[in-house]
Amino acid sequence: MTDTAPNPAATAGAAPARQVLLQKIYLKDASLEVPLAPDVFTRQWQPQLDVQVNTELKPLPQDHYQLMLSVTVTAKLGEDVAFLAEVHQAGVFIVRGFDNPAEKHAVLGAFCPGQVFPFARDAIADLVQRGGFPQLLLQPINFEALYVEHQQKAAAAARTQAETNGAAVATH
């Protein structure tokens, strides 16, 4: 999977073609905690689930990037934690040929997490089932919509900050 074909456009003097190449998917860390075992298995199973998903991007040399997706699932029975499963699933991508930084950022912030998530979902499902619990299938996540929402919130926060700074300057 690490082999890349030469880019004829780049060798002919034209702008390099856009490339997003998945180099490696790996499980960086995984854990399952069952604090009430074995008593939790004698209780009626109607958990309230809380799913938290976060991404972390790390630039690497030569247009490589590590995208780490952290998925934490907490299942509660009332106030008691039945289990806490956490997976840090990572992928290494080559991302090159994007002249527009916003487009490159969108690829890294939306497309790449979408490629890594199925592996994290499988790892969570496996951990939970090995822990003795019923099958848990996390729903797909639209990372593109989340990315757009995040960008809109950041832009709104920047506008609010600029307005606040402008008002502070005007009063002095």
TrEMBL record:
<dbReference type="GO" id="GO:0015031">
    <property type="term" value="P:protein transport"/>
</dbReference>
<keyword id="KW-0811">Translocation</keyword>
<keyword id="KW-0813">Transport</keyword>
<comment type="subunit">
    <text>Homotetramer, a dimer of dimers. One homotetramer interacts with 1 SecA dimer.</text>
</comment>
<keyword id="KW-0653">Protein transport</keyword>
<dbReference type="Pfam" id="PF02556">
    <property type="entry name" value="SecB"/>
</dbReference>
<dbReference type="InterPro" id="IPR003708">
    <property type="entry name" value="SecB"/>
</dbReference>
<dbReference type="GO" id="GO:0006457">
    <property type="term" value="P:protein folding"/>
</dbReference>
<keyword id="KW-0963">Cytoplasm</keyword>
<protein>
    <recommendedName>
        <fullName>Protein-export protein SecB</fullName>
    </recommendedName>
</protein>
<dbReference type="GO" id="GO:0005737">
    <property type="term" value="C:cytoplasm"/>
</dbReference>
<comment type="function">
    <text>One of the proteins required for the normal export of preproteins out of the cell cytoplasm. It is a molecular chaperone that binds to a subset of precursor proteins, maintaining them in a translocation-competent state. It also specifically binds to its receptor SecA.</text>
</comment>
<dbReference type="GO" id="GO:0051082">
    <property type="term" value="F:unfolded protein binding"/>
</dbReference>
<dbReference type="InterPro" id="IPR035958">
    <property type="entry name" value="SecB-like_sf"/>
</dbReference>
<keyword id="KW-0143">Chaperone</keyword>
<comment type="similarity">
    <text>Belongs to the SecB family.</text>
</comment>
<dbReference type="GO" id="GO:0051262">
    <property type="term" value="P:protein tetramerization"/>
</dbReference>
